[in-house]
Amino acid sequence: MTDGSRTFTTTETSFAVIHAIEDANGATFAELRSQLDLSKSTLYYHLTTLEKYGYVVKERGTYQLGLRFLSHAQHAKNKEPAFDVVRSKARDLADRIPEEISFATEENGRLVVVYHNIGGSAMTDFKIGQYLYMHVTASGKMMLAEMSEERVDEIIDRWGLPKLTENTITDRDTLKEELDRVRERGYAINDEEQREGLRSVGAKITKPDGSVLGGLAIDGATYRLTNDQIEGHTVQQLFDTIDEIEAEID
């Protein structure tokens, strides 16, 4: 599995430092050096450069991400005004049901979380901006089902089909059969394929030009979000919310 692209090691190291600080919710120099296995001088120069441009700040001996990232986040958010409509309607849905609501879109062959509301449960630990494999999520499978077979193959070739649970689909042909079922019923289900005990149902949000904006999903515990529950009224609640979103962005 490879994306076939060439990368610059120095830049990759800087991003590794950023991700390590984020994952640890702040880290000392010693903690970063231990985790990243970098020499003192290499880590020092990367941290100094990131501090200079406001991407990292040092507070009482601990490195934290800087507020400079907020301007980039705002820029990314503003490139698609419809995201604000999705957030508003998804929040309304979260207020009505005891499950988590998530909205994600595809970027470079992976799913990126744009909105997440834990509602009355906490089955997932999604973070805004987090990247996920498409084949293990309801929204991801829904969007894959809207793509050409050639594009699906490109994504599989680049990212593979990593196994996250015993239910994860790891075979290309099996996934394509699943995508056929998704197209037929108009929604996708993640049945403990990403995390044990988690079931999700997702459907696409379509823009006025016919392209797919992203996928809206309802996520919950398997004992509560049963297949009967999904087919009974959860899917209809999802479709009703998507209809409201599409009507407002039209």
Give a quick summary of the entry.
The protein has 250 residues and is of the alpha+beta class. The chain is 48% helix and 20% strand. The protein has a 6-stranded antiparallel beta sheet, sandwiched between helices.
Task: Please give a structural write-up.
- The protein is of the alpha+beta class and 250 residues long.
- The protein has two domains: 63 residues, Winged helix-like DNA-binding domain superfamily/Winged helix DNA-binding domain (Arc Repressor Mutant, subunit A, Orthogonal Bundle), CATH 1.10.10; 170 residues, GAF domain (Beta-Lactamase), CATH 3.30.450.40.
- Helix content is 48%, strand content 20%.
- The chain has nine helices and eight strands.
- The strands form two sheets. It has a six-stranded antiparallel beta sheet, with helices on both faces. A two-stranded antiparallel sheet has the order 1-2.
- α5 runs antiparallel to α9 and α6 packs across α8.
- The longest helix has 23 residues.
- The radius of gyration is 20 Å and the shape is globular.
- The protein starts with 8 loop residues before the first helix and ends with a helix.
